[in-house]
């Protein structure tokens, strides 16, 4: 029996989910942000022509050794309206062991945002690369400039909208490229706790999918905020770990509370300009410590797919209170990914052998497999090695 760390008590305990010994291939699914093209809403809220690239290029290092800005290399500052860009992304992902993209899907009571890239993928049949969808069902706010309480576009959940929503999704589920588990289309919800009646929503979706001839769905809730909820208790099939998991964060780097002597010394050094105030104004953590804590997490008694991230740093979006994981390297990421793959092989069988990567192209959060000007394709090559060393196959990375 495998052991894990209970995040509440910190005590080593036996894992409750019974591992299985048979081994086989693991599918790697990368979350995909369909944001990099202008839309009227972003023109109104952030200025004409706004895309995430504006945040990316304005980022700057906040302390010695801090890696910012993250600037793209091979694919450049692309526009996702171009089919050539979408094809190049899929070709690059496939050649480095990524199985498919999990596109974020933005639905607001019948209104869809940032939908054009995926709509064109669906309509054109290109790229011929597997995909699934994750409904990012939060309100849109001005969190990027610190006004998180100002709602730009609110969610309005209802049974009537659940039915309209599933009707909208049926053509995607019917596509031959759509990722399935035991024949069931895989659909993720980012925050099920925001749904008034998630079990009722799941019931409406399943009934309509079956009536359409698609059959049952495979529903997964992302553990982005609320964790340890058994998916079966809300009518879902599984959970998806989110990386980083905010519950298992290591201690903040070079940060102490204000009331002890070392804290007073640190604050004095900041005022004298001898220590970066970034450690006080932002939450800075060790990436290496994060990887270890994520690998040691307690395995729950329900199905939960593992997730890794090559890095995370959203200081491009936030002038204060950013979260920065410092010291990421391809080697540390590869070790984490390999551990997640091994755990998945021991835990699941067949189509449920899935590991998620956060993310393919979240450039303003510093978590991207796409090549950048510092590391090139090193993280992609690490991804290919992690897969090939465990189960040799065609993807081998760059020569």
Q: What proportion of the residues is helical, as a percent range?
A: 25-40%
Cα distance, first to last residue? 39 Å
At the first level of CATH, what is the class?
Answer: Alpha Beta
CATH superfamily heading: Glycosidases
Structural class: alpha/beta
Radius of gyration: 21 Å
Provide the domain count.
1
Shape: globular
What spatial order of strands do you see in the largest sheet?
Answer: 3-4-6-10-11-12-14-16
Question: Might you state the CATH topology name?
Answer: TIM Barrel
Largest sheet: 8 strands, parallel, barrel
Spell out the helices and strands N to C.
EEEHHHEEHEEEHEEHEEHHEHEEHEEEH
Beta-strand content = 15-25%
Count of extended strands: 18
From the coordinates shown, what is the CATH architecture?
Answer: Alpha-Beta Barrel
The averaged pLDDT comes out at: 88
> Uncertain regions: pLDDT < 50 for 5+ in a row?
1-23, 393-399
């Amino acid at each position: 029996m495998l052991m894990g760390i209970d995040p509440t008590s910190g005590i080593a305990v036996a894992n409750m989910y019974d591992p299985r010994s048979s081994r086989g291939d693991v599918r790697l699914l990368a979350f995909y942000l369909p944001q990099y093209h202008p839309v009227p809403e972003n023109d109104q809220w952030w200025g004409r022509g706004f895309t995430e690239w504006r945040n990316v290029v304005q980022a700057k290092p906040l302390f010695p050794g801090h890696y910012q800005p993250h600037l793209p290399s091979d694919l450049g500052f692309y526009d996702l309206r171009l089919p050539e860009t979408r094809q190049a992304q899929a070709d690059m992902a496939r050649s480095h062991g990524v199985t498919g993209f999990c596109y974020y899907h933005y639905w607001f009571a019948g209104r869809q945002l940032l939908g054009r890239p995926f709509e064109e993928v669906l309509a054109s049949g290109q790229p011929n690369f597997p995909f699934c969808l994750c409904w990012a069902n939060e309100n849109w706010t001005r969190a990027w400039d610190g006004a998180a309480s100002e709602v730009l576009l609110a969610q309005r959940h209802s049974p009537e909208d659940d039915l309209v929503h599933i009707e909208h999704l049926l053509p995607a589920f019917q596509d031959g490229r759509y990722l399935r588990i035991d024949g069931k289309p895989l659909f993720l919800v980012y925050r099920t706790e925001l749904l008034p009646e998630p079990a009722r929503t799941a019931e409406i979706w399943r009934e309509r999918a079956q009536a359409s001839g698609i059959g049952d769905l495979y529903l997964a809730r992302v553990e982005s905020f609320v964790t340890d909820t058994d998916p079966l208790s809300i009518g879902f099939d599984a959970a998806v770990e989110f990386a980083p998991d905010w519950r298992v964060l290591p201690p903040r780097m070079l940060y102490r509370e204000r009331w002890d002597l070392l804290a007073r010394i640190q604050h004095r050094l900041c005022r004298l300009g001898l220590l970066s105030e970034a450690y006080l104004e932002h939450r800075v953590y060790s990436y290496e410590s994060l990887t270890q804590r994520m690998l040691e997490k307690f395995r729950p008694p329900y199905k939960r797919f593992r997730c890794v991230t090559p890095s995370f740093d959203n200081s491009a979006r936030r002038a204060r209170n950013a979260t920065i994981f410092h010291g990421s390297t391809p080697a540390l990421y590869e070790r984490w990914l390999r551990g997640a793959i091994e755990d998945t092989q021991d835990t699941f069988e067949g189509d449920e052998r899935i590991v998620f990567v956060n993310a393919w192209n979240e450039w303003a959060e510093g978590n991207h497999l796409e090549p950048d000007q510092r590391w090139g394709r090193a993280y992609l090559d690490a991804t290919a090695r992690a897969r090939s060393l465990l189960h040799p196959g065609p993807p081998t990375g760059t020569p």
